[in-house]
Design a protein that fits this description.
The structure holds 2 protein chains of 2 kinds. Chain A is mostly beta strands. Chain A is 0% helix and 50% strand. In chain A, a hairpin with a 2-residue loop joins strand 7 and strand 8. By secondary structure, chain B is an all-beta fold. Chain B is built from no helices and 11 strands. In chain B, strands 2, 4, 5, 6, 9, 10 and 11 form a 7-stranded mixed beta sheet that branches. In chain B, strands 1-3-8-7 form a 4-stranded antiparallel beta sheet, with no helix packed on it. Chain B starts with a strand and ends with a strand. The chains are: A mainly beta, B mainly beta.
């Protein structure tokens, strides 16, 4: 199985900050990577697919990059509504696998 | 607007069965792979199964192989997850999602396996 490792596991930041979350795959997954945002008690929301393509309706403050094994999600100018847990997921090979999540908290 | 609405969750004893349903609207159901993802209490996301547009190709996470069956009825815009031999570790909220990259999600159905 392909292991997905996110770092950091948690992150404290302030409103207005720019943050980056990293996701590393245990083998080459090309660009078959998605990023999701989840708020407590809510369903996950898709942000990014194909490593860098923004889902329709997602603000451009979210951006993704990377290919192969190393990927990043960057969120610019943090707002209160951005504090949530973020997950990466590979869909290059079965079983599809998620990272363990990164909890973004307000400093 | 894309909508995915799950139903069929509940409390079941270990070894029991449940069938989850997901009704889709707002998009052409037959154009998309469909996926089930679960989240145990206080835990992260776990991909469970996916099925192709025609229903002839299915994939599962190892922990549910032989116990769970994903299926779809394209005439009803519906996705299903038949869960047999349920275990305590299957306790989770089960979400259906559109596509292999899970572009849209339902709110989920809670499955609790306990005696």
């Amino acid at each position: 199985d392909i292991q997905m490792t996110q770092s950091p596991s948690s992150l404290s930041a302030s409103v207005g900050d720019r943050v980056t979350i990293t996701c590393r795959a245990s083998q080459d997954i090309r660009n078959s990577l998605a990023w999701f945002q989840q708020k407590p008690g809510r369903a996950p929301k898709s942000l990014i697919y194909a490593a860098s393509s923004l889902q329709s309706g997602v603000p451009s403050k979210f951006s993704g990059s990377g290919s192969g094994t190393d990927f990043t999600l960057t969120i610019s100018s943090l707002q209160p509504e951005d504090f949530a847990t973020y997950y990466c997921q590979q869909y290059n090979g079965y079983p599809y696998t998620f990272g363990q999540g990164t909890k973004l908290e307000i400093k | 607007e894309v909508q995915l609405v799950e139903s069929g969750g509940g409390l079941v004893q270990p070894g029991g069965s449940l069938r989850l349903s997901c009704v889709a609207s707002g998009f052409t159901f037959t154009n998309y792979w469909m996926t089930w993802v679960r989240q145990g209490p206080g835990k992260g996301l776990e991909w469970v199964a996916s099925i192709n547009q025609g229903g002839g190709e299915m994939y599962y996470v190892d922990s549910v192989k032989g116990r769970f069956t994903i299926s779809r009825d394209n005439t009803k815009n519906s996705l299903y997850l038949q869960m047999n031999g349920l275990r305590a570790e299957d306790t989770a909220v089960y979400h259906c999602a559109r596509g292999i990259a899970a572009a849209s999600w339902g709110q989920g159905a809670l499955v609790t396996v306990s005696s």
